[in-house]
């Protein structure tokens, strides 16, 4: 007797879902208070991306994102423990294409390394928010870049409001 799909359904089976990755979004504030983002090139296609990878055993996701930033972009700093956003993309492999979702953790860069693990495999470069958003191919990631300066948690973490107040105060003194 042939079973229908419903009769063959194994409710205890693991359902395939998007595989989640983690990423670091390395940022810094310029002297004038404007935000810059560090992008790196992918190893194969040389397109602009942020450092990302798979979650790591025995590390919280934000800590794993910090490892990726150090290995792929050669930067260290303070990480916001909660993701500032998520984006999705299609990863093309030799045998299959997978839909992946990536949690993005904000990294306030305080050290730029001269030598790092993937230095010879990638280029790194600082960009303004709008330019960085235009350069990445994933629309959701570009939108995250553009929304970032307006996110309250990110503003507090980066000290954006304090920096702007200081810059305004400096201008007032010089007038």
Describe this structure in words.
Helices cover 31% and strands 32% of the residues. The chain is of the alpha+beta class and 175 residues long. It is globular. The protein has one domain (17-162): Nucleoside Triphosphate Pyrophosphohydrolase (Alpha-Beta Complex). Strand 1 (19-29) and strand 2 form a beta hairpin. The chain has 6 helices and 8 strands, in the order H-E-E-E-E-H-E-E-E-E-H-H-H-H.
What gross morphology would you assign? Answer: globular
CATH class (first level) name? Alpha Beta
> How many domain modules?
1
Total helical elements: 6
Measured as a percent range, the helix fraction is 25-40%
Q: Which structural category do the helix and sheet elements fall into? A: alpha+beta
CATH homology superfamily name: Nucleoside Triphosphate Pyrophosphohydrolase
CATH topological fold name: Nucleoside Triphosphate Pyrophosphohydrolase
The H/E string reads HEEEEHEEEEHHHH
Please sum up the structure shown:
This protein has about 180 residues and is α+β, with helices and mostly antiparallel strands.
Features:
Nucleoside Triphosphate Pyrophosphohydrolase, 175 residues, eight-stranded mixed sheet, alpha+beta
Write the layout of secondary structure elements.
Blueprint: H1 5-8, E1 19-29, E2 35-41, E3 48-49, E4 52-53, H2 61-73, E5 75-79, E6 85-92, E7 97-112, E8 124-128, H3 129-135, H4 139-147, H5 152-158, H6 160-174
Parallel strand pairs: 1-7
Antiparallel strand pairs: 1-2, 1-4, 2-3, 2-8, 5-7, 6-7
Helix pairs in contact: 3-4
